[in-house]
Amino acid sequence: MGAAGPPLGTFMGIPGFEIILSIFHKLGFDPNLLCNSPMSFGMLLTVGSSIFTALGYMLGYFGSVTSFISANLVSSATVHSSDVTYLYLVRWLAANKVSTDCRLFWVTSRRNLQSSTARRLSVFGDQGNQHNDESDVDGAEGEDDSLGPKLKFSPAPGISWFWYNGKPIVIRRSCDPNWSQFVGDLPDQTMVLTTIGRSPKFLRDLLARARREYLEAERHKTTVYCLAPQIYGPSRVVWDQGRAKPSRDISTVFMPSEEKSRIINDCREYLSPGTAHWYARRGLPYRRGYLFYGPPGTGKTSLSMALAGELNLPLFILSLSTGSINDESLTQLFVGLPKKCIVLLEDIDCAGATDSSAKSNETSWGKKQKKDNKQPQPPNNDNFPRHGKTPVSFSGLLNAIDGVASHEGRILIMTTNHRERLDAALIRPGRVDMEIKLGFADAETITEVFRGLYQELETEKEGAEKVSCKARRFAELVPAGVFTPAEIQGFLLSYKGQPQKALEKVASWVEGKNRKKSGRNKLKLRRNGRNNPPPNIMPPSPPSTATPDSAMSPTSSLQLPEPTTTTAITADA
Ligand SMILES: Nc1ncnc2c1ncn2[C@@H]1O[C@H](COP(=O)(O)OP(=O)(O)OP(=O)(O)O)[C@@H](O)[C@H]1O
């Protein structure tokens, strides 16, 4: 008997040793016997290393076979989630039930508020059915949508495959390895499609089809992009693709028709193929800017949305009053715009874009804040510009709009409720090429709002003539130049499908509104009087000192500040 070999436990720490032991067990050997003599121990080592060598050869061989196949016998396409092609593909997979039939799948729900990527990807479940925006093509069967968001499926990270036109297609989906699942968002992803055959035509055709189907589904929709905080990497704001909404028909925006066609024609002319060359030949930057101004609820945002739908352009919405952007992020956002799009820059009277008088206020106030070492907060003064935490400076705004880095080809729409506060430099020709004033509803707009709300009754029980007649009567009862279209719409929405009832109730509604408005005006006057007491003379009665009696009359038009009755365009055409 030779000397016994070392006990088995000595080798337990060696990687792979346990596998060798389990193989021995499977083959019916007792590995302890092998350790009882040095020879047996040597045998154990030899057998173990032979198994490893054989495995290594097999893997190496397999590796060379797969690299040979991938280099010579298959074609593949790689798509990254940062590109819109990824969206075409995800939608196509969903529409063709590949996502639902996958054995290994990834699941998300649409209303994951934290997750911008999940929202973006889950949009595509909706696209397969254009008639019902809320339905899903890839939701779980039998799921009750009324209970909450349906589940969305897509191929899981890893490898899955499906048949398409008689060929197997392998999908390899991989995620950004730096992704932390605790942040609530989905990681950047890459999808590689591989199929048999050297010709790339098959996959190109598939991708072209995915693109065509996506764009066809999008044709009657407007894709709206808003701001989203960047969760990964450096903290900054980025454009987040919201849901593609059914486009708003331009006919649902009520404003004088000749002015509506002027702005549409101007945009069309600007976007026509020859115009870019025309600008380039004259050395002009190829940009077009519009200013929509007027009181809140007069249709500035609605008109922008409808224009985006009419021109089939994506809409990028940015509000300067949120305070979440600064000069740097504003420039970054403008640089990140596609070549052709509409940018809606709301509330440009905020954040440093005010006229010099307001700016001088801002300076002294800012100095005071610095002295007090407090977080700047706007004073409670209606004439003072609102500021967010990271206000955009006036020069930062100008730089983003038409600085060197600013893209050409886009349409910029700026909106404000206070045109008088804007610096002349901001609205000079070249930055603003056409101004549109949206005002309180005139008689024509009031009639249109009424007809718009009850238009389906024109074909049903009421008949067109009856609805028009009621609309005219309604316009007689609502004073022109006092209410915004939003206010009138709000009232009519309480009487959906009941035009007669709306007619009966409108007089008391007008009366109540007038009473409220005159009360607010009086309060404002009193406050202004306290803030600026007149020296020795009595102040002249302002127009808004309407007597309560006159305000009570349903047809009296209140002398509100700047009651405009029409939408006016001033353009340099
Ligand atoms: N001219 C209009 N034509 C059709 N609808 C209108 C019009 N004005 C307002 N509305 C309706 O009123 C609501 C608010 O309109 P919108 O947001 O476009 O106003 P706005 O001028 O952009 O307001 P704000 O200055 O507060 O952003 C919307 O539901 C819209 O449909």
Automatic annotation (TrEMBL):
Give the stretches traversing the membrane.
12-29, 41-62
Top-level taxonomic group: Eukaryota
Q: Which GO terms describe its molecular function?
A: ATP binding; ATP hydrolysis activity
Q: Which Pfam families match?
A: AAA (PF00004), AAA_lid_BCS1 (PF25426), BCS1_N (PF08740)
The entry's localization annotation reads: Mitochondrion inner membrane
Region labeled Disordered — which residues? 124-146, 354-389, 513-573
Ranges of biased composition (kind: Polar residues): 354-366, 558-573
What membrane topology was assigned to this protein in its record? Single-pass membrane protein
Sorted keywords for this record are: ATP-binding, Hydrolase, Membrane, Mitochondrion, Mitochondrion inner membrane, Nucleotide-binding, Transmembrane, Transmembrane helix
**Which stretches does UniProt call biased (Acidic residues)?**
135-146
Q: Where is the AAA+ ATPase domain?
A: 286-442
Where does this protein have compositionally biased stretches of type Basic residues? 514-529
> Could you tell me which residue ranges the BCS1 N-terminal domain spans?
50-253
Q: Of which family is this protein a member?
A: Belongs to the AAA ATPase family. BCS1 subfamily.
What is the designated name of this protein? P-loop containing nucleoside triphosphate hydrolase protein
Name its species.
Answer: Ascodesmis nigricans
